[in-house]
Amino acid sequence: MENGQKVSKSVIIIYYSLSTQTAKLVHRLRKGFRQEGFNVQTLKLIPTKKLSFPLHSIPKTIFMMLTTFLRRRIPIRPIDSTQIKEAEIVVLAGPTWSYNPSGPMLDFLDKYIGLLKDKIVLPVISCRKYWRSHFNYLRRKVESAGGRCMQPIVFTHNIKEPWSTIGTFMTIAGINPRSYPLIRKHYPRYGHNKIQLNQMESKTRDIATSLMKSD
Ligand SMILES: Cc1cc2nc3c(=O)[nH]c(=O)nc-3n(C[C@H](O)[C@H](O)[C@H](O)COP(=O)(O)O)c2cc1C
Q1: Residue 134 C-alpha to ligand 1 middle, in angstroms?
Q2: Among 199, 191, 153, 201, CA closest to 30
Q3: Residues with a CB atom less than 6 Å from ligand 1
Q4: Tell me: the pLDDT tens digits for 168-184?
Q5: From CA 74, how far away is CA 172, in angstroms rounded?
């Protein structure tokens, strides 16, 4: 507090989203932080070569899963680092790809990790189910750069197995799972539901409130 006035804190949300799920979470994050009086900037990571979604091919989907398992980097366009330097809190948001952060996020970490020194970093993960090794990788990177990594906000697709795996694979490959009656029965949608998006907003407000109080 200064002269009885709340001092606004600044957050930058750095994100990548291939199939719009993280983008939907980021929309709620931005809203939640703004409602709590934060100054919010958003920075979308853009690959130098456009990635299409869906992939429209089963072999291409399998190939992508294998290469992402090996943490293949996907080069991103250069970013303006001024906004990151000025922010106190950095959100790193994106999907899990084969147990890892996505290729564009890996490239961002390789090139710009030094900017996270002394920052509070909040990971936000969108995934079908498996996020722990993605988070552990991010935490190691952030801490080795001298940043402070918070507990992540994670949203899964919230659908029972094996339907979640089948439905996600088909969606990525460009095959509509809901055109098969048996799958449609168990796989109502790809991605996060409205309740989860509302939860994202309320979680963000809770985190923002405690960050606003901390030094
Ligand atoms: C190549 C690839 C690999 C994936 N691997 C995983 C995985 O290992 N674990 C998981 O839970 N989800 C995995 N997913 C699913 C995505 O994490 C999930 O669909 C996420 O919500 C997509 O977010 P986005 O729309 O922001 O890209 C994978 C998706 C793709 C495209």
Answers
A1: 11
A2: 201
A3: 17-22, 64-65, 68, 95-99, 126-130, 168, 172, 191
A4: 999 999 999 999 999 99
A5: 18
Q: How many CA atoms lie within 13 A of 113 on its CB side?
A: 16
How far is residue 46's CA from residue 76's CA, in Å, rounded to a whole number? Answer: 5
- How far apart are alpha carbons 88 and 201 in whole angstroms? 20
Structure letter (DSSP) for residue 147: -
DSSP 51: P
Task: Specify the CATH number for 10-204; select among 3.40.640.10, 3.40.50.360, 3.30.70.20, 3.40.50.300.
Answer: 3.40.50.360
Structure tokens at 91: 């959100």
Give residue-wise pLDDT tens across range 70-110: 999 999 999 999 999 999 999 999 999 999 999 999 999 99
Structure tokens at 141: 């990177």
Q: What distance in Å separates the CA atoms of residue 61 and residue 169, rounded to the nearest whole number?
A: 8
Could you give the maximum distance between any two Cα atoms of the chain, in Å? 64
The C-alpha angle 201, 206, 211, rounded to 5 degrees, equals 120
Instruction: Give, for ligand 1, the residue of 13, 97, 132 to mutate: max count of ligand atoms closer than 8 Å to Cβ.
Output: 97
pTM of the model: 0.96
Structural domain boundaries of the chain?
10-204
Tokens at 31, concatenated: 């809203």
